[in-house]
Amino acid sequence: MKPESNPLPSALAPSVAPSGASGGQQAAPAGGSRVQRVRHELKRRELTVLGVDDVTPNFRRVTLGGESLADFVSASFDDHVKLIFDASGDAPVMRDYTPRRHDAAARELVIEFAQHGDGPAAAWAAQAVPGQSLTVGGPRGSFIVPVDYDWHLLAGDETALPAVARRLEELPPGTRVIALLNVPESDRRHFQTTADVDLRWVDGDEALLAAARALTLPDGEGYAWCAGEAAAMTALRRVLVEEKGHDRHAIRASAYWKRGASHHHEHLE
């Protein structure tokens, strides 16, 4: 989930393949790592709410459906789609969210919404009922982290929970994972996974940084993925790379939101 993030005007563009893409996709290494960047055909879909469930007191899961999902592609656990809401102004309002789950055969897409604020996405999710419509654009690309690293570190706040949950479901049995999650107790959840997970819940940004500093990173080749508030994720990346000596090519840190800003989303590496 990437709440209240900056809209990209191209999310409203007609369905066209990105320049240089073959069949709407193109893969390339990202920096000096084994991660692959894949571009997808940009497409806007009109979907219908099929169901609404409360995951925890402050998280709502909305299942969307439609035949236009037949060619929907989400190749990475931290992909994002544009949710496009009608607004009173001249332009629609767009927000970035993680595809929590996609079932191609059933033509279903699941999105989870944090219900902490009063932004347009949270407000829409709070009143969503089956039969309503929602416009979804993208994803325009995927950042594919191989699953065969010796170990994985997943860290972030509650906005990272949908991506973390999806990643833990997708990792192979026995995969070694350390998860550091800064989440209020009321929104902590059980994860479905066959990975070997060392899960550590913390309360607050400083506690998250302290937990990272206290880590002894495992031997072997590892990959760190971090997402949450901008300043906290910048500091966490610094701890992992500069203090712990983690390979800067094997980390992805993203600011899903920023204190004091209504719309924010950036990759920090």
UniProtKB/TrEMBL annotation:
SUPFAM superfamilies: Riboflavin synthase domain-like. GO terms for molecular function: oxidoreductase activity. PROSITE patterns: FAD_FR. InterPro entries: FAD-bd_FR_type (IPR017927), FNR_nucleotide-bd (IPR039261), Riboflavin_synthase-like_b-brl (IPR017938), SIP_FAD-bd (IPR013113), SIP_fam (IPR039374), SIP_rossman_dom (IPR007037). CDD domains: siderophore_interacting. Residues 1-36 are annotated as: Disordered. Residues 7-33 have a biased composition (Low complexity). Residues 42-146 form the FAD-binding FR-type domain. Belongs to the SIP oxidoreductase family. This is NADPH-dependent ferric siderophore reductase. The lineage of its organism: Bacteria, Pseudomonadati, Pseudomonadota, Betaproteobacteria, Burkholderiales.
